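Standup notes, structure subgroup. Blocker cleared on the iron/sulfur cluster input:
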Amino acid sequence: MFLFFCNSQMYISRKPDWLKIKIDNTENFAFVKKIVAKNQLHTICSSGKCPNQCECWSRGTATFMIMGDICTKSCKFCATKTGKPLPLDPSEPSKVAESVSLMKLKHCVITSVDRDDLQDKGAAHWAETVHSIRKLNPDCVIELLIPDYQNELLTVVMDSKPDIVGHNLETVERLTPFIRSKATYKNSLETLHQISISGILTKTGIMVGLGETEEEVVQTLLDARNAGTSMVTIGQYLQPSKMNITVTEYITPEQFEKYKAFALDLGFKHVESAPLVRSSYRSDYYYTELHREAQSYTEKKLRKS
Ligand code: SF4
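Run returned:
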C-alpha cells in the first residue's frame, strides 16, 4: 500500500507523486522501537517526524538524539519541541552505546537538541557519548551531526575522535535568518571549516523548496565546499506541522539530479540528493567507503603523533 507518510503525525497536504512512500513495517521496526523505549532514548526520526522512519527502522537503523527532546532553539522548519530542557541524563552515553551494540550497527549516527542552557552547551556530553560507543563498539563508524560549536567546544567533541562530523547549513544564506533561530550562515560555515581543518570527514545538509533559487543553492554548495566539506545531503523540505513554515515549492527529482551533478563537479566525495534525503538517510549504506577513509585518517593521525 502506498501512502504519503508513515508517521501519522506528519502534517498532510497535497504532494507530488515522487513524495509517496511505501509502508513496510517489519520485525526490525518493532525491535528498534523496543530498544529506544527500553533505554528511554530519543531519536530525530520520531522527534523530527522524518518521512523515512518506516524505511530506516525497518532496516534496523535510527539516528539517536541526545541531551533530551527539548531544544533551546526554535527553528521554523523543525518539529522538535522547544523550551526549557530537563537536566542531562548522565547514563545516556552508556544507554546509547548499549543500543548501538544491541542493534549491531556498523555505522551509527548521533545528533542532539541544542542546549544553550548549559555552560558547555553539552560538548562534554557529546564526547562522553562517543567514548562510550567506541568502548563497546570499537569497529562501529561514528557519525555526529552537531550544533554550531566552534573553538574550545568543538575541540572537546573532536578530541573524542568520531569518524565523521556533520553540521547542517539547512538553507541558503538569504533565507537563513527566516528559517533558523539564532544560528547564522557564517557561523555554520566557520564550524564546517574548523571541523575540516582537523582532517576529519566533514558533512553538511541543506533543504530545498523553501523559496531559494538554483543560483543560491549552487553558491551554498560552493561555500560549503570552500569550507572543506566533503559530503553533502540535499532533500526536499516538508512541513512537519501547521506550526512550521510552509513549503514554497516541490523540487522535481530531475532538479535534485542537477544539484547532485553540480555538487560532484565541485569535488564533494559523497552526495545524496533526492526528495526524501535527510542528513542521516542511508548513511550506513556508504559506510564501507567512509570507513576506509576514516581509517586512513586515523592512521595518518597516528603516524603524526
Ligand atoms: S533519514 Fe535519518 S532521521 Fe530519518 S528515519 Fe532515517 S535515520 Fe531517522
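Discussed briefly. DSSP finds eleven helices and twelve strands in the chain.
Next: hand off to the docking folks.
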